[in-house]
Amino acid sequence: MQGTLRDIHAQRLLILDFGSQYTQLIARRVRECGVYCEIYPFDITAAEIAEFGPAGVILSGGPETVTEGTTPRIPESIFELGVPVLGICYGLQAMAAQLGGEVVASELREFGHAQIRSEATSNLLAPVFANANAVDVWMSHGDKVAAMPAGFVCTASSDNAPYAAIEDPQRQFFGVQFHPEVTHTDNGEALIRRFARELCGCQGEWTAANIVDDAIASVRAQVGTDKVVLGLSGGVDSSVVAALLARAIGEQLTCIFVDNGLLRKNESEEVRAAFSGAMGAGSLAELNIVTVNAQEEFLSQLTGIDDPEAKRKVIGATFIDVFEREAKKLRDVNWLAQGTIYPDVIESAASKYGKAHVIKSHHNVGGLPERMTLKLVEPLRELFKDEVRKIGLHLGLPPSLIHRHPFPGPGLGVRILGAVKHSYADVLREADAIFIQELRAAGLYDQVSQAFAVYLPVKSVGVVGDARRYEHVIALRAVETIDFMTARWAHLPYDFIECVSNRIINEISGVSRVVYDVSSKPPATIEWE
Prior knowledge:
The chain has helices at about 25-30, 45-50, 90-100, 190-200, 210-225, 235-250, 265-275, 295-300, 310-330, 340-350, 385-395, 400, 420-440, 495-505; strands at about 10-15, 35-40, 55-60, 85-90, 100-120, 135-145, 155, 165-170, 175, 225-230, 255-260, 290-295, 335, 375, 450-465, 465-480, 490, 510-515. By secondary structure, the protein is α/β, with parallel strands linked by helices. The longest helix is centred in the middle third of the chain and has 21 residues, at about 310-330. It is about 30% helix and about 25% strand. The two termini are about 45 Å apart. The chain has three domains: about 10-200, Rossmann fold, CATH 3.40.50.880; about 210-400, Rossmann fold; about 420-515, GMP Synthetase, Chain A, domain 3 (2-Layer Sandwich), CATH 3.30.300. Strand 13, helix 10 (about 340-350) and strand 14 (about 375) form a beta-alpha-beta unit. The protein contains 14 helices and 18 strands.
């Protein structure tokens, strides 16, 4: 790095969350414009807003209705900041109601695709209507604005929302009934870019190169000459943390890779290969990785346990024991590095307000006990997953690692249904490797969002050659999704599935039958456990 490091957080937007399923997507769209932003719950205090000092504010959608008096409202101080404000869906309705307009229940609700028409020249909507006076958008609302506040003009309408977009050009207050953050809205990203870059005046300093430089400087200032330990799993987050810390502090970092017997085939070798010289001599080539073979310890602890949640807890607790034991062997370590990312931070913050719900326990280094007395360094805690991938590529990590499909923390432990045995894990590992290998060979790997094999606790009769085989069943699972909140089963070609099935049954003696999972999410989840 040369010269003075720029402050990439100086120009930033504040996003107030009213409970929309799309709130994080709004933030990701803003970040894609090169503008830093943070999400806070709607009931943030005026003092916190003033301290944040936003260049602009976006109000998210939400499930409530402003026609009832006890539902969420916009902090009045937002309207006194003197910065542009954009209300989306519920954010528009709350703005209209609080500034003197009227919001009523719609006779006909709009959910899904709709078309909006231009009604007046608009500073915000100019890129949306650049090529047409009517465009397709995504709606999701049961209320509508029936009367605008004083000073506002209507800039767009739809069949069921006469005020689909309104704005007060003097105060730079903008509202849209549709959702520009979703891909179903034509030119939605251009709208958000217009708001963030032009109306709010942000320069676009939030880039992969600047994020890396900023993170390196921050880590060096935080850690100094101290030593750091990191639990390296081979996943995207921990791998990018390792790359970042290797660039920042070099030999002060030690990575501990725990082989729990529930990893993908050749996981340890692939992790080492990914880091071996990936960024050239003097950086990742010298990454210090301590590999711990704890397969027997994990598998013995899992003996007789078939409940999914119980398996997760056992695997998590055993990991803590192994990691703590190995970390104690290192001398003068004061810091624990973690791959915490921004969605984790948002959920933790939101839980204070009662908005977060735990669906199932997660396994990561975040569960390490306080008795380790290590201070935390979390260089990714401001970043979304897509941003983590971008800086990983910028740091020189191979695309094959950065774009790997998600893998659960408990590994194959939750892809072996029922009790976990060493022999089951070996069979599943081979089946999964064949599936992934064939996906890559067919050019299908990057076309699906996640693909894996599942070991089923049922036996089936088969015939291989002239011999009867009575063995277990393997299920193949592949899905397509954008946000992993919903997912469609991947419509892989029949001849491809036939090829994978034949290979698994012919090459693995412990399998008699292969099935393909055609369940979407919802109602099913992506993982089977």
